[in-house]
Amino acid sequence: MCGIVGYSGPGNSVGPILEGLTRLEYRGYDSAGICLKLNGQLEIIKKEGKLDNLKSLISEKHPFSNIGIGHTRWATHGGVTTDNAHPHGNELFAVVHNGIIENASSLKKELISEGYVFKSQTDSEVFLVLLTKYFKQTGQTLQSISKAFNTISGNSAFVIMEKSTDKLYCLKRSAPLVVGENDETREAYVSSDPFALVGYAPKLYFPQDGVICESTVLATHVQVKFFELDLTPSNRYKTQGNVMTMDSTTKGPYEHFMLKEIHEQPGLIDKLSAFYLKGEGRSVLNGLSGFQSPMWHLTACGTAWHAGLMIRNYFEQINRQRASVEIASEFRYKQPILNKEEVGLFISQSGETADTLACQELCQEQKIKTFSIVNVEGSTLFRNADKNFLIHAGVEIGVASTKAFTLQVLTGYLMSQAMKGNLDDPKLFSEIQLLSHRIAEICAHSDGVLKEVAEKIYAQKGFIFTGRGKYFPIALEGALKLKEIAYVHAEGYAAGELKHGPIALIDENIVNIAIVGPELLEKTISNVEEVKARRGIIVMIGPKDLTEYEELADFYIGLNFEGLPNLSPLYVNVVLQFLAYHIAKLKGTDIDKPRNLAKSVTVE
Ligand code: F6R
């Protein structure tokens, strides 16, 4: 979603801001802009559409500015237009904003009745106008920021620059924000994502909600100050080194980040198991030995929710512990029954998904423990959790999540084995090794049969993914992956559920991607027969050498399920990832940045 990058220092702000915004492009946006200080005036350059549009406008001017703020916008309030792009500014201030101001429309009405004029349809401009109004009353920037922030409701992050100084101000409520500092080069940064600051700011600060941060570049060093909203000094922030690396920013030999990330999975599985079974992560898992919760409340969104469905199965079947898994946007409003000793477990790649964070907050209010399975160390989810289980997937750039899903599930599986006290069981290690080996085999041959199948089916009208038991979440995940990157209608169903409605859709233009594991084989096969009888096109993913059933399928993808009693769904899922990828490629879609989607959904 929206991205923010700000800079103040002796150099030209344009370079780091555009580089930072480029790194955040993968998150999804529809317009971009920058505010620079040129000849002592705040000058805003912005343009709807891709960042390249903004870059060409800037390159015509060759500007040099010691301070600047940049933004990529993902429209919420107001259409995709240049006027609605950020920054929003006037003769005093320029502001960039991520999030939503919930009371914007009533505030706007009031401000208009007081004579203020708005140049855009955005909620963000309301903050600028409030800030300006209070500044005109007080002449104090910090006080005006605080007053404006106290007037608005909703979750937001703001970065502000002013005409009169080269200071960067920022603050937030339940939205990601990071302040960066490079004392050696005397440069101050701010961003909505530490990834934008890799290689620029070795030291990072994470202010908590309602803390104003003021960065000033002095002759000898960068001064970063924190204030509460009553303007007393604040210590409500965390400091850490920037641990991210730049490796993930290139595609290497791959055509798309998604393809690269699919191929990274075997190596990452090996690393994660080494980390948790034999390395530093072991002590984190040891802490779970014998752990019992009367109820696990798993919440997540999208692909991470599918990972939750898998993890619930492990907790229930391996640990015989009760677990519920809910879509975060539902859980947060359902007045969930939460009792002492229970645990909220939040699954998120970014650690910044607004609905998931709201569930975490809700559990904290009810004083139950909060655990996370998360990729981004230092994210809001990470910082606020009682215990974190990192998935160590590295930066995931493809908007469609692939490697993060695999590693979320694997982390949940290791947690389950840790509770059972099984971490030293050699069978556990060898099952994980086998998984990585089998996935590597699929990766090595993905340009063969999987591409051929994709070529045969990509133009069909619709796709129904089916699976039973542990393969049901994978059916949902396979369908989600296909719909998001290939823009075709795809649904996942429990195979036994087909005849209760969706079978009405089946005809010769509908493809059934049927996952047929060795478990409940005959029952799942009979569901395939039902589709066959209605002339559906069948792609069956099943045990190899199952000749008696191969004929049932139009296309049969045989896999070796042996030795993967708990992890075979992750193996099958990689086949689905490749199918989605090849189908999307044949359709010519924007695979890494599918339309309408954002990598990190920081609004409700
Ligand atoms: C789908 C996808 C999304 C995310 C969802 C949650 O490929 O990536 O469905 O899984 O938006 O995001 P995180 O995991 O960052 O909380």
How would you describe the overall organization of this protein?
This protein has 604 residues and is an alpha/beta fold. 37% of the residues lie in helices and 23% in strands. It has 19 helices and 24 strands. The strands form 4 sheets. An 8-stranded antiparallel beta sheet has the order 3-2-4-1-10-9-11-14, with helices on one face. Strands 5-6-7-8-12-13 form a 6-stranded antiparallel beta sheet, covered by helices on one side. It has a 5-stranded parallel beta sheet with strand order 16-15-17-18-19, with helices on both faces. β15 (296-300), α9 and β16 (323-327) form a beta-alpha-beta unit. The longest helix has 20 residues, at 568-587. The radius of gyration is 25 Å and the shape is globular. The model has no long low-confidence stretch (mean pLDDT 95). Fructose -6-phosphate binds next to α9 and α16.
Descriptors:
eight-stranded antiparallel β-sheet, alpha/beta, single chain, six-stranded antiparallel β-sheet, 604 residues
